[in-house]
Amino acid sequence: xxxxxxxxxxxxxxxxxxxxxxxxxxxxxxxxxxxxxxxxxxxxxxxxxxxxxxxxxxxxxxxxxxxxxxxxxxxxxxxxxxxxxxxxxxxxxxxxxxxxxxxxxxxxxxxxxxxxxxxxxxxxxxxxxxxxxxxxxxxxxxxxxxxxxxxxxxxxxxxxxxxxxxxxxxxxxxxxxxxxxxxxxxxxxxxxxxxxxxxxxxxxxxxxxxxxxxxxxxxxxxxxxxxxxxxxxxxxxxxxxxxxxxxxxxxxxxxxxxxxxxxxxxxxxxxxxxxxxxxxxxxxxxxxxxxxxxxxxxxxxxxxxxxxxxxxxxxxxxxxxxxxxxx
Length: 327
Fold this sequence. Notes:
Low-confidence stretches: none
Number of helices: 5
Structural class: alpha+beta
Strand content: 35-45%
Shape: globular
Number of strands: 20
Helix content: 10-25%
Largest sheet: 16 strands, mixed
């Protein structure tokens, strides 16, 4: 097996072929400028990329966002084995097309499931998928509901990988959201097969941008997305870089917190050790909170741009890992 490396990319992008403002070429050049290694172009119900390819600088993975009033699903790495308009009239119809895509070799992600504007209108607990888009666009309250759902799935024993995607269509209110967030994938090589396999296996972490806080988690011989047996004295190691002041690092062993600390001065490089107390899984996240007038202003922005009716803001995630499984 080749030595694994971290590759960074954006999993959810739109062009003029659906409702974006950039051509495919313009979008590719912008992503190169950000230093990304891979992208998925996922226009609504349209294949802008007929086949995945590497242009010498950037891997462009074929994708499509299956889009209906009842929910949105990203399809990566293979063509949807049907032609639009799709029958997306109910849950059974979604499951049918998802199964067909997976049989065709595609990797499937449930997009922004609890979005105030375009979330799923049916229960998704038993909907087949490989990933869930936990973090969609710049951080906001709906993503925390996605995180809570994902955590419940993990606690039930379901091994589903959590990823992030900018859902880039255009800049909003002068804010450039391209690659906000960025998904870092631990893979043998930057090919469609290796990147998508790593994502399905949960070998990834998500952070605010390509140059934002980075977080890695290891335990014994296992790294993010892998498994190892439980034994007494087992210890986890968390490595962080570019941690900002007033951000909190928390490590969960199932639903129990085994480490949590706010770093008032931040840190360019940080290493943390904490115990593993029980079988199940281990994951880590970095969070922050808005205070005072900034918190009120952000709540108003959510209402205006995202249609959110939330009156208070929870702590937001700056970076998170997928689990290590403790068996």
